[in-house]
Amino acid sequence: MHILIIEDEKRNFNRLKRLLEEIDGTFRIDGPLASIVEAVEWLQAHPAPELIFADIRLSDGLSFDVLRRTAVPSPVIFTTAYDEYAIQAFKYNSFDYLLKPVKADELAAAMEKVRRASSPQTNGEDVQVKDISHIALDERNTLLCLNNGTSETVPYSLDELESQLNPDVFFRANRQYLIHIDSILSINNWFNSRLKIRLKKYPDVEIIVSRERAAELKGWLDR
To answer: What is residue 205's three-state secondary structure?
Structure first.
């Protein structure tokens, strides 16, 4: 895994790098990038890393500005000594928010969350989250329904997948469906204040959202 660390204190970078290497010695780690300017220039000049660790307070501002300027698609784990940015962090593809000093067990749990969310195991092969249109419960099987029209059975419950996937990207429409935000074709009013969702790659699938969850869906789309 290719990891980029945005951090303005070399001591914190060295500690995080050491902890990551203890988790997996094959990680390729770049950094530290100590400022907004430096981080923006790096991300514009290099392919997006598979994961970013970002200290929130940098020498010239907040790392949120880096993500706004580059629109980098990489998952982000924020590290900070301050907890007042937690809610704001989840607007920026945040998979976790670790308070400094970062603890080894919390870091390991965060890395496992990223690994499982980005590459669910299906029949021995990796499926990337970006390839998923929606996730459906079909009788007792959980299916990853992909944008290419195929589906894969996975050994996880819908509840387990919901807890692992980025809530900014996936919405639990009802007991049967988790949907990717980019897969939505249309949302229409339905009977009894419910909503009906249709999907881009699966036009025959109609997903009904209850009146109770309709307001939550609208709030999710407005993030």
So the answer is: coil
Number of domains within the chain = 2
- What residue numbers bound the domain in which 158 lies? 121-221
How far apart (Å, rounded) are the C-alpha atoms in residues 55 and 35?
Answer: 10
Residue carrying the six token digits 């890393």: 49
Could you give the angle at the alpha carbon of 208 between the alpha carbons of 206 and 212, nearest 5°?
165
User: Which ranges constitute the DSSP H helices of the chain?
Assistant: 10-23, 36-45, 64-70, 86-89, 104-118, 158-164, 211-221
- For 114, residues 6+ apart whose C-beta sits below 8 A from its C-beta are 51, 75, 77, 95, 96
pLDDT of residue 45: 93
CA 124 – CA 140 distance, rounded (Å): 20
pTM of the model: 0.54
Domain boundary among 83, 118, 153: 118
As averages over each run of 10 residues, the pLDDT of the chain (223 residues) reads 94 95 94 94 92 91 88 85 61 74 90 71 58 89 90 84 86 95 93 92 93 90 80
Cα–Cα nearest to 96, from 30, 32, 167, 39: 167
Q: Which two tokens stand for residue 103?
A: 């603890």
Residues 111 and 213 in one domain: no
